[in-house]
Amino acid sequence: MVWGSTSFATFLIICPTSFFLGILFSQFPYDYPVLWTSTPSSPDTTFSDLESHLRFLHASPPLIPRIMHIVVAVGMLGFTMKLYKPSESNMLFDGASLVLYLCGITVYITNIVKGLRLVTAGAYGEVELVEGDSTVGKVGGMGVDGGIIGGTEKGIGREDSLRVLSASNTILALVLVGVLVLQAGQWYAERKDNQETEKLKKERREEAKERREEREKEGSTGSEVSTKGSSTGRTSPREGLRSPTGRGKKSS
Predict the structure, then answer these.
(1) Bridge-partner residues for 128, per DSSP?
(2) Per DSSP, which regions of 31-146 are E strands?
(3) Dihedral sign, CA of 195, 197, 202, 206?
(4) pLDDT, tens only, 7-33
């Protein structure tokens, strides 16, 4: 791939994606026991550690989320640059990458942000059912399971809420890995295409060089033949002078 605006746009896509993957990797020690350990050694400690970690993240200074949102905007800028007057490769790889990137933004807004607010408030299982402008009912409680009591819907409990948040982190990580895979696939496809193009150009140059050498050989051979023919068809001046003199002597 020739270094230019396309490569710079790819750089703007890969850097934010890798940045967010690093953040999600730092969350993995907290998410792994919650999702993939069937019977944790100390369930209360596991969920309490995750809950404390999420509250600490949500209580970070406003500068931190602003930086994250700027990084998200940088990735969108990279997609905009690559999809401006797109080629077929851009439509296939960058279009799919943009879809995955938007899916990741959706997961972040709908699941992760709301989950962090829920964990900070500690309002697990609280659901307000609103009909028009009036509140029909409200259910609250720590660690309650989903269900219907008295015609009012109950939300999921503490452990399930934390599992959903950890699963959202895993889904977001897979989506971002898909973006990197598509960008790497585009680079490989363009690299192979450039190699094939250079190979064809090289073969055409060699064929043109061979044809030019053959024409030069044919031209040199034809000039040698014409030179020989012209030299044999000429009469030497001495022979032309002798013949009339000899005829004159014989007649006398």
Answers:
(1) 138
(2) 127-131, 134-139
(3) positive
(4) 888 999 999 999 999 999 999 989 888
Q: In whole angstroms, give the CA distance from residue 97 to residue 79.
A: 8
Place of tokens 């800028």: 77
211 three-state secondary structure? helix
**Residue 69 CB-half CA count within 13 A:** 7
Which amino acid is it at 112? I
10 touches 83 (CB < 8 A): no
pLDDT in tens, 99-142: 999 999 999 999 999 989 988 888 776 544 344 444 334 444 44
Q: What pLDDT digit, counting tens, does each position of 58-109 carry?
A: 999 999 999 999 999 999 999 999 888 777 777 889 899 999 999 999 999 9
Given this model, what pLDDT does residue 49 score? 87
Cα-based distances in Å from 139 to 146, 159, 228: 11, 17, 114
The torsion angles phi and psi of 152, rounded to 5 degrees, stand at -115, 135
pLDDT for 247 beyond 70 = no
Secondary structure (3-state) at 111: helix
